[in-house]
Specification:
It is a single chain. By secondary structure, the protein is an alpha/beta fold. The chain contains five helices and nine strands; from the N terminus they run ββααβββαβαβββα. The strands form two sheets. Strands 2-6-7-1-8-9 form a six-stranded mixed beta sheet. A three-stranded antiparallel beta sheet has the order 3-4-5. A hairpin with a 6-residue loop joins β4 and β5. α2 runs antiparallel to α3 and α3 packs parallel to α4. It is globular, with a radius of gyration of 16 Å. The two termini are 23 Å apart.
Length: 147
């Protein structure tokens, strides 16, 4: 399950925080994609991966460079392929958030609540605790409480 940070100061010193998912994906993650990426690309953007750096658009079957994926799709792929980093959730739409919350591992940050209605259990982390939350309302309350 993913781990959520709501305060940047709670992110461990040995973990990199990535704010610009689009840029990070284009410079790092795109080169390490494998077959796991195909399902995510299809589910989020409706595109089909047709080569290492190419996708087929769902709109008119045009072949595009992989850097044309949505920021939400890139965020999910960043989280999946870089579990040792913390990624900002602010560029994710609801369709991407649902997948993020279902990932088996990964680290994300947002200073305000970004929660899909259908959520699995997640870990929440502060400077003083790490605990699991499996309830939408409980997670929303945690995010909205000042510490």
């Amino acid at each position: 399950m993913i781990t959520i940070y709501k305060n940047k100061k709670d992110i461990p010193q040995n973990m990199d925080y990535i704010e610009l998912n689009d840029v990070f994906f284009n410079q790092n993650t795109a080169s390490i994609l494998d077959e796991r990426a195909e399902k995510i690309i299809e589910k989020i953007d409706g595109a089909k991966q047709v080569g290492k750096y190419k996708i087929r658009s769902r709109f008119d079957d045009t072949i595009l460079d992989i850097d044309k994926l949505s920021a939400g799709c890139k965020t999910i792929l960043n989280i999946l392929y870089n579990p040792d980093k913390v990624f900002c959730l602010k560029e994710c739409g609801n369709n991407a958030l649902e997948i993020v919350y279902g990932l088996e591992y990964g680290n994300v940050y947002s200073d305000y609540a970004l929660i899909p209605l259908e959520m699995e259990a997640v870990n929440i982390r502060t400077a003083s605790e790490v605990r699991m939350v499996a309830d939408y309302e409980e997670l929303k309350e945690w995010w909205n409480n000042e510490e």
